[in-house]
Amino acid sequence: MPYDKRNPELRQAMARIALALPGVFESPQWGGWVYKVPDPASGKGRAKAKMLCYVVDGKNHGWHCQFKLPGRDDEGRAAEAVKRHAWVEPHPWKTLGPSGWVVARPRTAKQLEQLAGLLAESRALLPDTEPETPDVPELPGAGTHGSPVARRMASVMREAREQGWEHRDPDAAAFDG
To answer: Beta 101-104 vs 32-38: how paired, if at all?
Structure first.
């Protein structure tokens, strides 16, 4: 059953798709909702985030989603998506359309499923939100799993033991691997 273009559930469906992608958060902005990814290179987290997409209720066309796809002009993925899907069109702004931005107006569950794939492609253009972990050698038997913090703590403890540090409490030493 198609969604009514004015139904708020349509915006919520697009929001769920965007928020399911890694690192994406929602911010009300410009009369709609912007879905962003923190840029770890900026060092400012969410304050200096990159935009994934913008979901807005257009006056004439109802809820729609604007986002960028890989490539530029007629050779890029945006042009391919426009040709393949009647509900996707080039962005009307002269500065955004040629650089791969599109406007998607999905109205059915199948179209929303296809939108999820397109937004995943768009997400791949943005920075990875996971901070890089330093190369820390593992303790014997510790395996390769665990948080970066735990791996770093294990490395610091190993280095301290190598330099002659010992626990004052012999019972605590049993937990030190």
So the answer is: unpaired
Q: How many CB atoms lie within 10 A of CB 154?
A: 18
Residues 105-156: pLDDT tens digits?
Answer: 999 999 999 999 999 999 999 988 755 444 444 444 444 455 666 667 677 7
127: helix, coil or strand? Answer: coil
Distance (Å, whole) CA 161 – CA 176: 10
d(CA 74, CA 98) in angstroms, rounded, equals: 8
Instruction: Give residue-wise pLDDT tens across range 6-19.
Output: 888 999 999 999 99
**Strand ranges for 39-157 from DSSP E:** 49-58, 62-68, 88-90, 101-104
- Beta-strand pair 32-38/25-29: antiparallel
Report the C-alpha gap between 129 and 46 in whole angstroms.
11
Residue with tokens 């391919």: 80
Torsion sign across C-alpha atoms 28, 13, 83, 72: positive
Q: Are 18 and 52 in contact (CB under 8 A)?
A: yes
CA separation for the pair 89, 79 (Å, rounded): 9
